[in-house]
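This part of the workshop introduces the protein records we will be handling. The question running through the whole workshop is how a given chain folds. To make this concrete, we reproduce a full record directly below:
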Amino acid sequence: TWDVADFPGTSAGKLVYGNGVYLYSAGTTHWYSSDGYTWTSKAFPESGSLRFDDGQFTIFNNSTKVYTSVDGQNWETRTLPACPNSGQWYTFGAGDGKIMILPYNAKHVLLSNDKGVTWNIMTDVMPVNATIDANFVFGGGAWFAVPNNSLAGIYSTDSGATWQTATLGSKIGAVCYFNDSFLSVPYAVVVS
């Protein structure tokens, strides 16, 4: 059963839930709600990708910083180390209390084991120079990513130190982890 609730936002964005709070992001403005019906607007520190894991919201601004918050309203700024070879940190995932960031068209991995306080760069560990827009998730002890326009995914079960490939059979538009399985859509449904 679905209830319809008025929402003040007008643009497409990202919705996450954690610590009793719904957080909706659309650019640098976001709304938060404790019940899904009453929403309050507040400016984000910066626009970017949004995740919730292990009691913490995280925003990644696609190159130099992450912002962390427990309540979705008060944010701490965390500056990232520079990407090797003048590269650019590009997409991120959060899982198991860790934050992992992958670069644009390179083989490096940036990992924080303490929710963004300190960072470790692992150079040239991925099997391909990958550009991954949004298809990067954690689940079941594995980090799984699908490079853009690829028929293969890459995954790591040791926090990014080593990576393997997984043949998918078709190009993937989105991937998630649910009920002990990775699910990918829309070009084809692949459950592993």
User: Anything to note?
Assistant: The mean pLDDT is 84. The first strand starts at residue 14 and ends at 18. Residues 88 and 103 are 6 Å apart (CA to CA). The chain has no helices and 19 strands.
